[in-house]
Design goal:
two-stranded antiparallel ribbon; Transferase(Phosphotransferase), domain 1; elongated; Serine Threonine Protein Phosphatase 5, Tetratricopeptide repeat
Length: about 475
């Protein structure tokens, strides 16, 4: 929540709060400094800028998750409510000590500070994970400081809860910040608390070296670095951190720390660290490395390099192709989810949820997210068909079922249901026909003619 050069949005009117100043642009929300009248204290107000229902649901989930956690280094939520136009807002602790991103940009970090910060972060994550919550977006911008220098873990907008439903977890879909995400998160695989450990490891390397070595020029390059690049070898100035970095940045989750208690123990065993700024110590180490690099080295002739470069390029080409495919699938799933939320299941034909999910499956035939979403759409039409059938509206039932089969044409359960509904319709038709035939063939008893009620002698007299 740092000041930006973006034009300040209109100040919201919130009963019980007096807006004092616009603080920051927080992505999907705007953040203000406000005075809470009832408790006479200054707070931060986070207001959703859009009325989008999916964003509002995520926004309110963040408030609910934060309300379950009580920890000094996790953001404290004070209040939640809605503006007059329906947009939600959060009232939370005001943090005016800047962000870790700002401190990294200033380049004035000390090893002792880094050790203290990561002890605090490990403790905060231990509590968060104990509540069954995975943060999924640990990065410098989401770590803020109080004026006393203590840090606070913020922004739980995309946090994951154990047992969460598909439409909130978006299984198979990359969420979070790619430069800090774990390999399993980038690939859309199931994640657990150890995914946050990997993000913490990337953050630690950036604090120690002053840069994030996994950040590439684009999404594809960043993905390949996370999947293939080993943990960096730390210079001698910060070598005691190497074992922790190696464990946090293990490509397989099973090779990381079993829990934050193990991480805390490893951090506590580190030496206090030098009082000199990290950047100054690393620059001294780099000067030595530069001198060593200037020693004569026999290089291959230039004309002999191109075959090796060509071979490396050919070997890397499939990897970049896979990364490109993953990115395209990611974009298609995003569009499919947007159409799904908007209720555009099958139409327009080239801009519907069905269209984008099928395009994703052409690239990744077994993508779990796309398959689950199509199953969800088909199940909705199937349920509608069953409701119509219960009312004996057979044509409407068959129409709804046909839509379900349009989504999943090879689904055996839907094909069997179609046959069953057709059999029920035919059985009812036969019963109605039999009832009609019985009514038509039943003998009719006519009342006797009036003349037959007269005596025989009177009928003969009348007849003459």
């Amino acid at each position: 929540m740092s000041l930006t050069s973006v034009a300040a949005p209109p100040e919201p009117q919130i009963p019980g709060y007096e807006i004092e100043a616009w603080l920051a642009d927080g992505g999907m929300a705007s953040v203000y400094i406000a005075w809470q009248v009832s408790l006479q204290r200054r707070v931060a107000i986070k207001v959703l800028r859009s009325r989008d229902s999916d964003l509002a649901q995520r926004f309110e989930r963040e408030a609910r998750l934060l309300a379950t956690i009580s920890h000094r280094h996790v953001l404290t939520i004070y209040d939640v409510g809605h503006l007059a136009d329906g947009r939600p807002f959060l009232a939370m602790e005001l943090l005016q000590g800047g962000s870790l991103r700002q401190r990294l940009e200033d380049g004035a970090l000390h090893e002792s500070d880094v050790r203290r910060w990561f002890l605090d972060l490990a403790g905060a994550l231990a509590t968060v994970h104990a509540h069954g919550i995975i943060h999924r977006d640990i990065k410098p911008g989401n770590i803020l400081f109080r004026q006393d220098g203590s840090l606070v873990l913020c922004d739980f907008g995309i946090a994951f809860e154990d047992g969460q439903a598909l439409d909130l977890t978006r299984t198979g879909l990359m969420v979070g910040s790619p430069a800090y995400a774990s390999p399993e998160q980038l690939c859309g695989r199931p994640i657990d608390a150890r995914s946050d450990q990997y993000s913490l490891g990337v953050l630690l390397v950036e604090c120690l070296l002053g840069r994030n070595p996994f950040r590439g020029q684009d999404y594809g390059e960043t993905l390949m670095r996370h999947l293939q690049m080993p943990p960096p070898v730390l210079p001698a100035a910060v070598a005691p951190w190497q074992a922790i970095v190696d464990s946090l940045l293990a490509k397989e989750a099973a090779a990381r720390y079993a829990d934050e208690a193990s991480l805390l123990q490893a951090l506590q065993q580190l030496p206090a660290g030098s009082a000199d700024p990290l950047l100054q110590r690393l620059e001294s180490a780099l000067e030595v490395a530069t001198v060593q690099q200037e020693l004569p080295v026999q290089l291959p002739a230039r004309r002999r390099r191109w075959p090796y470069l060509l071979l490396i390029g050919l070997l890397l080409l499939p990897l970049f192709w896979v990364a490109g495919q993953t990115y395209r699938v990611h974009q298609l799933l995003l569009r499919g989810d947007a159409r799904l939320e908007a209720g555009l299941f099958l139409q327009p034909a080239q801009d519907s949820a069905l269209f984008y999910y099928r395009q994703a499956l052409l690239l990744q035939p077994h993508n779990a997210h796309a398959l689950a979403a199509l199953t969800r759409i088909a199940r909705g039409y199937r349920d509608a068909a069953l409701i119509e059938a219960s009312r004996h509206h057979w044509q409407q039932a068959q129409d709804q079922l046909q839509l379900a089969l349009q989504v999943r044409p090879d689904a055996q359960d839907l094909l069997a249901l179609r046959e069953r509904l057709l059999a029920q319709q035919q059985a009812q038709a036969r019963l109605q026909h039999a009832a009609h035939e019985e009514t038509v063939s039943r003998p009719v008893h006519h009342a006797p003619a009036h003349g037959k009620l007269l005596p025989h002698w009177l009928r003969r007299w009348i007849g003459g």
